[in-house]
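hi got a favour to ask and not much time before my train. below you get a single protein, a line of residues and a line of whole numbers that encode the local backbone shape. could you go over both lines and see whether the tokens make sense for that sequence. a few lines back from you is plenty, here it is:
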Amino acid sequence: VYGLGDEIGSGLQGTVYAVPGQPRAVKVLASTSSRERDRLREQINFVQGRPLDGLPLARPLELLRAPLVGYVMELLTEMSPLDAIMRPPSDGGDPMVWYIATGGLRRRLRILSRCADTFAQLHGIPLVYMDPSPKNILVSCHAESDEVWLIDTDNLYCISSPIDTLYGTPRYVAPELFCRYTDPTSLADAYSFAVIAFETLAQTHPFEGRLVAD
């Protein structure tokens, strides 16, 4: 039913493809065993059954048929990852000119406010996003817009459920998750979002340097 077109992006979890002629994308998840494939399908079914209407999430619309593991989702156009406005480009241009041209402080505050509201609504369901990162938060490419969407929603996790597989992005994952002291929580999401918010506003990561690396 859905043909795989150009590759949009890829990572440790899988690869995302555009669907030719349709406003849809397909995420094919990487799986190494039949047990892992079954777990991934159960996870996608779990997310599909959550009350997510009205939230700006690229959630699974349809499950792929075996032997593939993955799902079909809405294709978000004219949007780019949040990290596009977190650090000035290294082209030698004036950072202040770039900062203002990409919306300045006011737009960044509006974008972060929308992100915080989305996370708060997820936590109220209650669900944990698990992997907040600048790559998983898409914002409008237009400087006059503050539209925000979250992608990679197959990671959504029920707060009261045990978990076998943990996902997180280096530099943004909470220390207690990185060290596997706890399962994902809303507080771990809040930590990741706080780091993202700091870097978006200050244009630098809050925890960088030799002491942190060691």
Remarks:
- The CA atoms of residues 32 and 200 lie 36 Å apart.
- The helical segments are 34-48, 95-101, 104-123, 175-178, 186-202, 210-213.
